Input
Amino acid sequence: MSKIPFFKIFSKSKFSVLNENKYYVGLKAKPTSTWTAQRHVRGDLVPAFTLAEVFSPYYLSPRRIAFTLAEVLITLGIIGVVAAMTLPTLIANYRKNQAVTQLKKAYSEINQAIKLSEAENGELSGWLFEDTPESKDKFANDYFMKYFRIIKKCKPSNENCFSKISNINGVPITYVNNPNEGMTSFITASGYSVLFWVHGTGNGAWIYVDIDGPLKGEGKFGKDIFLFQMQFDENFTLSGEAVQGCEKIGLFLAGLCVKNPPTRESLKTGTGNLPQGLNIMGCSKEISGSYAGGLCGALIMIDGWQIKDDYPW
Output
């Protein structure tokens, strides 16, 4: 290994080596003190760069760039640690953004379908309904489904069109998952699937939306299953656990079908000015009801179509 003679680097100019038999390609650099280096001369081996040398703005050696094995392993280890710390958060944020995008899209398209139906069939309050299996299917077809771009329809609803539903804590909702309930489901061209269940009294309907379609995701309220209310008549009351009370005509994310807008806290806890029956649907894993998480879509909407840090994801 030969030593390069001392030379100086001058500002805004090329440097020259004092020994004419050893030369470098000239480079510009800031003034610095005299400097020595080792180089590859006539086939001699040259030690690898250190990290400090590589990132130094004044290091101008023309040697072949390389790192030691230890430096490579240390760098890879640091990259692995950083990736392990950041990837889960990045993936979770991506899935949250995807969920909001699909939910918002479904809300827009269902609203548009209802408006198209009203333009052809009259206002919601005048839609005709009879409480028979045949009438339910005809009602779903004539007033609702024909205004979507549908890839597949399932009557009665099954897992080929709509995932089995669980509440936010993963507890299956057996009543909705029962194919004998006469519910209709379908897959849209936009990728989400819809389960449509009209109330026996004909005053309204539940619309369950699986934002990533059947056989995907977790099938949970608040994750990929979101609940809508479509109301045909004001002051509707239905006994049982499913729902009690809806005070406006139209389409709403469950919990927003009230004349006085609910607070964010009431949607999380199922309390406040919500109609009786919606208290079992709060968007919280602390709720023990079978429909826990049913109000999560409304929470996302009133939060400006975003999932905030305290959302029970």
